[in-house]
Here is the input.
Amino acid sequence: MKIAILGTGTVAQTLANVLSTLGYPLMLGTRQVTDTLHRKSFADWHQQNQSINIGNFEEAAAFGDCIINALQGHATLSVLKQIPKASLDHKVMIDIANPLDFSHGFPPCLIEGLHNTHSLGEAIQQLLPDTFVVKTLNTMWCGLMVNPQLINDGNHINYICGNDDSAKQRVLKLLNAFGWKNENILDLGDISNARGTESTLLLWTRIYAATKSGAFNMNIVK
Ligand SMILES: NC(=O)c1ccc[n+]([C@@H]2O[C@H](COP(=O)([O-])OP(=O)(O)OC[C@H]3O[C@@H](n4cnc5c(N)ncnc54)[C@H](OP(=O)(O)O)[C@@H]3O)[C@@H](O)[C@H]2O)c1
Here is the structure.
C-alpha cells in the first residue's frame, strides 16, 4: 500500500520515519516542493531520508492508496479543494489535523464553525463524500503516535472514529504496526465524534503549558 502524507511538518516527518521503516512506499505533499526542500527544518530531515518522495499536494494524493492529513487545520479544507477528487475518491484518509486557531496566541481556541456542533473531521467527510475519513491520533504529541510504548508501557488512550467500519479496520492494522494495542484504541463511532476528540485539544494545550512536556496522554479509568 502506497501512502501519501499531506504536510511536511513535525507530524509528517515523524510518521514518515516509521512508515518508511515499516516498508511503505511514501510521498509527502507540500505547497512548493523547491521551497520546502530548501527549508532548513525539512532539508535536515530529508538529508537523512532521501528515499522518501516529495511532491505537490496533487502529486502526493495521486500517488497514495491511503492519504494521511498532517496539514494545519486552518489550511486543510482549502488544500483538499485544490486536489482533483478522483485522486481522493474511494481512498482511506487518516485525519490527524486539529482545527486550532492561534490568532489570539497560546493556548489556541478552535476555529470558528469547526467546533461544538461541527468538526474538521466532519467537514472533510462532507467535502469528500466518497473518501473514507478516519480520525485518529490527533489527541497526542506525535512522538507518542508512533511510539506509544514511550509512556506507561503503552497503556493510554487513542480514539478512532469514522463512518466506514472496514476503513477503520484498515487503520487499526496500521495503528497496531505503530505499537498500539487494541485494548487502548477506543472506537467512538461515526465521524461526528471528531467533535469530541478535536475538543480535547483545549485541555491538551493547557496540560502542555502546565507540565512543559508533550510526552503525556490520557486514559480511561473505570
Ligand atoms: N505536532 C504534534 O505533535 C501534533 C499532535 C497532534 C495533532 N497534530 C496536528 O497535526 C497537524 C500537523 O501538525 P504539524 O505540527 O506537523 O504542523 P505544521 O508543521 O505546523 O504544518 C503542517 C503543514 O501544514 C501546511 N500548511 C500550513 N499553512 C498552510 C497554508 N496556508 N496552505 C497550505 N498548507 C499549509 C504546511 O505545508 P508546507 O509543506 O507547504 O509548508 C505544513 O507542511 C496539525 O493539524 C496539528 O494540529 C500535531
Remarks:
- The chain is about 40% helix and 20% strand.
- Residues 7-12, 30-31, 36, 70-73, 75, 79, 96-98, 100, 138, 141-142 surround NAP (CB under 6 Å).
- The chain has a mean pLDDT of 98.
- Residues 109 and 171 are 28 Å apart (CA to CA).
